[in-house]
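Reviewer comment 2.1 asked that we show a complete input and output for one of the modelled complexes. We chose the flavin-adenine dinucleotide case, as it is the one discussed in the main text.
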Amino acid sequence: MSDAFDLIVLGGGSGGIAGAIRAARHGARVAMLEPGNLGGTCVHVGCVPKKIMWLAADIAQTLAYARTYGFAVPDAVPLDWSALVARRQGYIDNARNAYLRRCHELGIELVPEYGRFDGPGRIVAGTRTLTAPHVLIATGGHSVLPALPGAALGIDSNGFFALRAAPRRVAIVGGGYIGVELAGVLRGLGSTVDLFVRGQRALPSFDAELGTHLADSMRAQGIGLHVASEVRAVERDGDGVRLQFSDDRAAHRADVLLWAIGRAPSAGALGLDRVGVRRSDSGHIVVDALQATNVPGIHAVGDVTTQPALTPAATATARGLADRLFGTAPGFVLDPDQVPTVVFSHPPTASVGLSEDDACARFGRGAVHAHRRSFRPMRGAIGGDEARTFLKLVCVGDDERVLGVHMHGAQVDEMLQGFAVALRAGARKADFDATLAIHPTAAEELVLMH
Ligand SMILES: Cc1cc2nc3c(=O)[nH]c(=O)nc-3n(C[C@H](O)[C@H](O)[C@H](O)COP(=O)(O)OP(=O)(O)OC[C@H]3O[C@@H](n4cnc5c(N)ncnc54)[C@H](O)[C@@H]3O)c2cc1C
Ligand SMILES: NC(=O)c1ccc[n+]([C@@H]2O[C@H](COP(=O)([O-])OP(=O)(O)OC[C@H]3O[C@@H](n4cnc5c(N)ncnc54)[C@H](O)[C@@H]3O)[C@@H](O)[C@H]2O)c1
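Response of the prediction step:
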C-alpha cells in the first residue's frame, strides 16, 4: 500500500468528510484519518442527536396543544427515554454507514488513527508516515470545563447524550447555543431546569432583542433563567451537586449539572509548532478566506479554525477548497456577514446577517432602520397560549438594503433559509414589501412590514 497521496485529511467529521469526498470526486487520491467515529461531532454528539431530542420535546408540546384543540390526550404521556435513545442511535448508525459506503466507493483510504505533523506534507499515523502536497486539518473541537473546584462533577453535551433516563433537576451553566438548546429540550421532556448565564441575557452574540424574547419564552416554558450568575465551586450533595456562586446568593442544588460554556479547538496535539502553522490566542488555526494557513500546502476548515462553528460552514468551505485544489471552479468562499443560523430553543431562534447593534457600529446609527413585528401565532393562540413570535429586519441606507433578519418563534427555523437567499441576492426592503404574502402564515409578516 502506497503512503503517497494528493490530499491527507485530518479528521472525519463534517468538514473532513465533505472535503475528502469532493477531492476524490475530482480524481484526487485521498487519505482520511479518523481515530473515532466517522461523522464527527455533528453526527454523533451534535446536530443530529440534538435535533432528534429537540423534535421529541416539540412533539411533547404538540401533545399539549392537541388537548386545547379538543383531542382527548391524557395529562401524562410518559416518554420511554431509552427507546428514544435507541431509535436515535439507529438513525446515527445509518448516517455513519452511508459515509463509510461513500468513502469506499470513491476509493478514499480511511485510516483509524490520530494524525500529527512530522513536517510539511508528512503525517505520522500510528506506524505509518503518509505524504501529500496538501493536508486539510479538520479536527474540530471539544467542550471546555471551567477551572474551579468540583467542575468535574458536571457533564458536558457528550454527557447529555449519554443519559439513559430523564434527570429530575438539572442546572445548566452557559447561555450560548448548547446551554439554551439543552435547557429547552430537557424542560420540554419533563425535567426541572435552571439556566445560569454570566451576562444579562442568553445568546449574547445575537441581536439583543432576540435575547429579550427568548427570555420570555424560557420563563413561559418554566425554565429558571438566572442572569449575572458566576459559579464559584461545585460540591457533591448526596446523589446530586450543589453550586456555589461568587455573590452571596444561596447555593443551588441539582441532580445533574451540565456545563455549556463553550468549546475549544482540537489542535494541541497536531505538531503544528513543528511546521509553523499560526494559531490565534484561543488556539484556533488562523486561515484566510480561501482556507489557507500561513504554511503553503496546509489548509484548515471547521471548528478548529476561527470561522463560525457550524456544520454547513465546515462542509461548504471544505468543498470550496477541494474545488480550488483539484477542480476548476473558484469554489465556495465564506462571507461572515451571510451566515444563517438557528438555535433550537423552544420556540426556535433564527438569524442571518448583522444585528442592529453591529449594523449601527459599522454604518452609523442614522443609516440603520429596524422594522419589527410581534404577534401570537395561530397554532397556540386558539388555545389561549400567550407565546409570541418576534420578527425583525435590519436595513441600511436610503434604499434600505436588508442586512439582517432575526426571528424568534414557532417554525422560524424553517423560515430562515429562503430569507438568507434574499439577503445574499442583495434584497431591499422594497423587494420584501413588493412580494405577495402567503396567508395565513407567520412568514407573511416579514413581507407585510409596510
Ligand atoms: C451539542 C452540539 C450541537 C450542535 N448542533 C449544531 C447544529 O444544530 N447545527 C450546526 O450547524 N452545528 C451544530 N453544532 C456544531 C457542529 O457539530 C460543528 O460545527 C461541526 O461538527 C464541525 O465540524 P468539523 O469537521 O470542524 O469537526 P468535527 O465534526 O468535530 O470532526 C472532527 C473530527 O476530527 C477527529 N480528530 C481530532 N483530532 C484528530 C487528529 N489528530 N487526527 C485525525 N482526526 C482527528 C475527531 O475524532 C473528530 O471526529 C453542534 C455542536 C454540538 C457540540
Ligand atoms: N444550532 C446550532 O447551530 C448549534 C448548536 C450547538 C452548538 N453549536 C456551535 O457550537 C459552538 C459551541 O457551543 P457552546 O454553547 O458550547 O458555546 P457558545 O460559545 O455558543 O456559548 C458559550 C457561552 O458560555 C459563556 N461562558 C463562557 N465561560 C463561562 C463561564 N465560566 N461561566 C458561565 N458562562 C460562561 C459564554 O459567554 C457563552 O455565552 C457554538 O458557538 C456554535 O457555533 C451550534
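The longest strand covers residues 368-375. We note this here for comparison with the apo prediction described in Section 3.2.
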